[in-house]
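The pair is listed for reference:
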Amino acid sequence: MDTSLLRSLAVTGNNKMASSEAERQRIDECRPNIYIIGAQSTGKTTLATALGEYFAQRFSHYPSIDEPAQLKEVARGVLKRHNFTASDITSSKARALELQQLIIEAQATAETSLANTWYIADRSALDAVAYARQYVGIAEAESLRQGTTWHEIVQRMRASVVVLCEPCREWLVDDGIRLMPQNQAEWLELHSQFLGLLAGSKVPYTMLPCSISRLEERIGFVIDAWKKKQAAIE
């Protein structure tokens, strides 16, 4: 990430967030996790990485405050470890459902391992259910939303900042790894699956519109949401 951008954001952050001891204590005691979620090619990982860099620089003024852990590319790790490919999602419903179950388990394990700190994630377990609804079926996807693990996942998300990235047509780029929709209608339908799941799970979220395209502005948008969540928790 451009260092000049980080400096600019840090200055803005310093202006917006008081550097008093009381403010340091408030931040130390209340740091909600951040989930950046949505369909493929919506800038999730880029944004999550940039947010991590922003907070690392911002909190360098407060050595006692841990910078956020980065929880990234969980799904790609599952694909690699279990010899799945993106095409498995559309070629075999049974294999697609198995893959999404493994992703949920991996996501839950990763989140649990960070119970003593806070994190920024470039996806959530809810993403796996959205893909299952889209490519396997609604009834089958519901089987993924059962048990204690899913309940704990939803509880963590409700206590966090959840940002849903709106699809932007010009960002739909094939990287050779991720599943690509056949057309924009399919892409938007997947986005709708996220909307339905968030509402059905009663997970509060903020929509990041594609009209906000500059990275600096997208970071600022999430920071504002994060500060509002802090205030609500307090």
